[in-house]
Give the backbone structure.
Amino acid sequence: MVMLGIAVLILTTGATTPLPLPGDFDPAVNMRVKVTETGSFHASRAAASFASGLVANGAPEDLALAEKVLDAVLACQELRQDRSRYGNFRWMREDEGVRDTNAVEFVLSSLIPMMIQHRDRLSEDMRQRLLESIRLGLDDIRAMDVTITYTNMAVYDIANTCLGGELLDDATIAERGYGKLREWEAFTCRNGAMFEFNSPTYTAISVDALRRLSDFVEDDETRVRARTMAARLGLGVALRIHRGTGRWAGPHSRAYQPTVECAGRPEVERVRDWITNGTLPDWLECVLDNPTLPMQVAETACNKLGMDLRTYHSPSFAMGVASRGALHFGLQSNLFMVHYTRPEAERPGVVYSRYLINDKWLGDWYHATDRTSSRNLLDEGRFYGVQSGPGAIGVYSTGSIRSCSSAKGNLIWTGWRSVDEIWVGDHKVDGLPAQVPHGDVVVMGSGGALLAVLPLTPTDLGGGAPIHLVERQGDLVLEMCNYVGPETTIQRRRDLPRCGFYVEAAERSEYADGSAFGQVVAAGRLVDRAHGRGRRSWRVEYRRDGRRVGLEVDLLRWKLERRWDEEGDLGWPMLESPVARQNAVGRVAVGDAVLECGKGPGWLFGDPESNTWVAGYHGQPAPVKLTVPGGSVRVERMATGTVVWQAGVVRVEAVGLEGVAAVSGGTLAQ
């Protein structure tokens, strides 16, 4: 390992003008504060980030204040050796002890890069205190050793451990980080998408952590692996940015309510910022701008658990469905989601699903231990889904319920006043609430999209199991009820209670009105049947005009048994789309381009219009060849890395690279 002081320490002169103090700075405790109806809170991670910014700016006034802020951060560290989380940090200064064990990752993610770049700007006493604090924090990170399926915290663990080990000149710590990166890369790439899949919040955390790691790590192999993984995650993100709305389309393994409702700037701007500042490679612009529509993107997050995600893009809408939720975070998931254009509205339209018990709604939950964050509408059901193009099936079970006053599946349209037309069967709805008779198709027309819903027959737990349209806090909700009535105890059943829907989206310009689209959907054949004795199966299938989509669920164990479309049973593709693919068979083809590599996972993106072709490989050293229209690249041997062809200019970056790449029809960049 190269000594940090020799290779990485960046000695720079600070600014002469101090940073302006943020409006939420609390000089009484030298931390930023957030005031809510439940009190005033000072977050340790926000203070660490603020201190890092002060030290980076480096004006004398900044450095004096930074030492005070760092004092406040260090005062949040758990230093009572009899506590289980010794070395971790309190999330809030006000906490009695460590409430959220992730705090240490967030705090160190600011302190370690600050020390790598600018520790010479701090007093000797503060430097020593920070080094000891970082060592204690890394000890607790090692003790926790979060599972690699907890993706964003696993990547934080990797970055903090690699960089912290190098900072402390401790090879044992650093090697643990290098090894965990290899383990996470292998797990992720043999599935396809990251386990904590397609989360606008947590994929972003992972991408930023990989950038931090690749910027500062000493170990060359680790740097290349981090950059290659960032490129692969970035490809998955860019493939899900909807061109019509600029939003990060679903499904999402985890998301918070502002993201669900499209608050803030479109996510496409964030991705372009990543490209501009070097967090993600520049060729991803071609993915964002690729004109291929309509387009379906499929990835697998965990094939052993049957967890995949599919997104269908059309000019005016994007529909996304996951086969199931991530084990750790189902409550925070958007497993069925539609984004659509609303040109006259401030935000795009969104439709998403939730199963809710006891009429909970927005404002009933905070996020975990962070009492300063937004409220959420959590999903209390157990979901399975299948999608084929613009059609999908979503089914819910209640899971375990002892007593309730309501239990129901919900499809939610944000901002119901922006819904232009509502049809139930051949009847146009003029006001809410509105009943939905069994078998009728419900159609909403809004902005550029039509959405037709055919509710499945819900299990009646008492009260008639109504299906109806209602307004809740400004949103339009299709409620598919298993129970509505007085508080009651749900009797144990042989079959788990169920409800669900077939849903199909279309461009609004393709039909005269919602009624016309509804008639087309109603002409299809819906199968909604539970059968069997010893093994109770629920089969749901929709067919029309040679298309079909279906799934089968074991009702006794609530286990997904099969999914299919008109071509047969669906598998678990690592990545499948018209413009990008991934597999582990040694050959990947996209259009007229072919990647030939070892049997480790390989992926390929192609954009003929810009003559951009990008290949990634994750495996043991092997010969690699990329053939593109008009040329080719041969690499004698390489392990994890990328081969990029952009208008005939070739760049190769890889672990274990042997020889000089042989380029035909192009030139090798220096």
User: Anything to note?
Assistant: Confidence is low (pLDDT under 50) at residues 1-11. The CA atoms of residues 585 and 599 lie 5 Å apart. The longest strand covers residues 475-489.
